[in-house]
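Researcher: Last one for today. Full complex below.
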Amino acid sequence: MRVDDSLVIERRAVISGAGQSDIGRRLYRDPLELTLDACLVAIADAGLTTADIDGVATYPGPMDVPPGFSGAGVVDVQDALRLELGWWSGGIESPGQLGSVINACLAVAAGLATHVLCFRSVWEGSAQGDKGRAGVMGGGGGGYRASGFMEWTMPFAAPSAAIWIAMMAERHFHEYGTTREQMAQIALNARKNAGVNPNAIYRDPMTMEDYLNVRMISSPLCLYDCDVPCDGATAVIVSHADTVADLRKPGIQVEAVGTALRGRPSWDQFDDLTTMANRDAGAQLWTRTDLKPSDVQLAEMYDGFSFITMTWLEAMGFCGKGESGPFIEGGERIARDGVLPLNTHGGQLSAGRLHGYGFLHEACVQLWGEAGERQVPGDPEVGVAAAGGGPLAGALLLTRRR
Amino acid sequence: MPEAATEPGLPFRILPRLTDRNRHFWTGGEAGELRFLRCQSCGYYIHPPTPVCPRCHSKELAPEAVSGRATLFTYTVNHQNWMPGPELPYIVAIVAIPEQDDLRLTTNLVEMSPEECVIGMPLEVTFEHHEDVWIPLFRPAQ
Ligand SMILES: [Zn+2]
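Model: Here's the assembly. Have a good evening.
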């Protein structure tokens, strides 16, 4: 059922600026410095100063474990930039990483703030050092015992989302006949796009043969199905739509958002393991707009693992349930000149695991027409940014204001 | 209950922290039983265990043994060395417990090779004893 437009208050928000810090596999820089770099770029991009910022939102807030997962919290940034805030929020319990941006949209609509600085920073590359992901997995002795969700996975040597997502992918393969050659297109497409993104981490060409021959991580996920831990920060400014005259460039309209979580909040108890919470968030988004999936001209959707993007394609209605394999087969539809350009910056698979915010940044850059060599042709006006896997999912439908 | 050390030859495993809420699950294997918390009012099995029945909100809950049978719902063959653990590659699976439609368990499949995995195949529980914990694993049904 269509939600009445008077209730779709996220539409009172625009994205007015976006910025990123240096991004690298391992930068060994102060994570707060990276965070502030991104924030200051985004503020300037909007044509604002720190004196204009009266709100801050972030995901996941300060966290020591796992190392590198968070570079700064709200209060770190507030103090470093001496911000005076009418509203602020940080935390990991939200509809995915972009839940923080959606919170900001609601805050400006409610009049609690006018320009909200939203950021996400990571330093997982440096934190893992040369030990790879095993370097931050914890456990391994000392009498450590697992609790919470990990109680149900750690005793079975299943500490990684790679394993949990792999089991969902295997079930999708089983129910719908999906193949590795189809799933490969998410990784190959990302790499092709990364090749024309100067800030991407892995830019060398990748072939289907490379994909099929690389080592398996957790079947059916191979190394190239897993995103690349990195260091870097991303920031966007969410402003009230009434301020567009004060802004340096046209705001990007938040047309509608999706935040729902109707299944069990779990990687193994969710009712349908061939999809994820994005099923609910995606369906909800389309109840809040007259636009349709066929109106979307580019999609920047989470690829922590390549299979997650396939579930987003289905969740957002870009293809039917179970049909993401045939939809991406051959890669033409999702290429930059295809019907639905996907992860045009290279995604987390090749551009780096900026953890959710990279997709929103790329959607904005594309809608502003600032993407340079990787710019989607045809002057796109409607895009989707979506992030999260498993029980986490949040999506934004964005349009360029004329 | 006296604590017994992990038997020689078993893989390293990170063990769960035992609490009053979960102890029935992790120690049922001592009696050879796979136990889930069950609502005594409406009969619903609750996993992971919670203090209130999600279906009828009753607090009259008690551990009960199920048959120990299961079917393979999905799986992965893990090749990555995340941490000390079973010999690579090992199988992580989600199994469906037949006593209730939405009762599932993440576990490992043992006494079989990765090539033998077929979604839907019948399985049965077996336990691996470490210290004060009996970890429920599954193998092909006899
Ligand atoms: Zn009950």
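The radius of gyration of chain A is 20 Å. The interface with chain B takes residues 133-134, 137-141, 144-147, 151-160, 162-163, 166-168, 170-171, 174, 215-221, 268-269, 271, 273 of chain A (CB under 8 Å).
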